[in-house]
Structures are given as C-alpha cells and as structure tokens.
Sequence to fold (168 residues):
Amino acid sequence: MFLELIATIFAGLAAAGVALLANRVLGGRLPRWIAPVAAGAAMLAATISSEYSWFGRTAGALPSEFEVIETVESRAVWRPWTYLAPFTGRFVALDGASVRQNSVLPEQRLADLWFFGRWAPVRQLQIRVDCARGARALPGDGSGDNVVWQTVGTEDTIVSAACGETGT
Fold:
C-alpha cells in the first residue's frame, strides 16, 4: 500500500513536470492550472491502473499449485468508472498441494482455501469436502464429530476443485 502511494505521488510529480516543461517550451502560452490538473489526472490514472492490475499481479505471483476458484468484482459510488468496468477486488484460491484424501472415508477431502482482498490481509481456511454428496463443511472442533455439512452440488467451484485434484 505504501509503495502504491509513493508511485501515485511520483506519477503526479512527473506529469506536473512534463506540463511545466511543455509550458516553458511553448513560451508560457498554457494556462497556469495545467500543471496541477496534469498531476491530478496522472495520480488518478495511476490509482485506477493499480486497482485494475492488482488481481493479475497477485494471482500471477501465486505458486503453481494454487488455483483461483472464485473472484469477486467490485463496484463503488466513489469510483464511478467501476460501473462500466468492475475490477476484481477479492478472490479465493485453493492450494492443490494441500488436498488430502480421508483414509476412512475416501470420498472426503480436506483442503486449504486462501482468501485474498485488495486492501485486506490474506486469510487461510481449511475446508472439508464430500465429493460423493457435493457437500462442504468447516472442519469443526478437530475431532470430526461437530461437522455441519452444506450441500452445494458437485458443480460448486470449491467442491469441483478439491475433488478434481484426485480424479474423483
């Protein structure tokens, strides 16, 4: 976040410098407000570019075992351009290397999900998946006794990603 702020400030300074240089080359014919307007426009452009490229940069930096299984697009009133083209503000990735098959119940899997947000810390969650029933659940208290299953179907992104790892 801090580096993005620095990059935005430098984009504004660079644009203001180019505007001042252009004004000098043109013999002072440009209006005096051109430098602050150029700086503001460059800062806005840098911020928008950073928002729209965040998902690609972050997902591209994940290890090859990670599979992005769900994305959440963001729209906001204070960002009116997002109503024309929403940007990805959050996404969920499944760590394929973490998928483990239950030795007692072979149709069940245990996997790690990772939640990424634009301005949020990364969070990790273990999830249980029943491939045969198309259900998923949080692991419960660790003993396996207090599991509340949610039937979502086999086409659910989490179920299909966790069950597809072992071909079930």
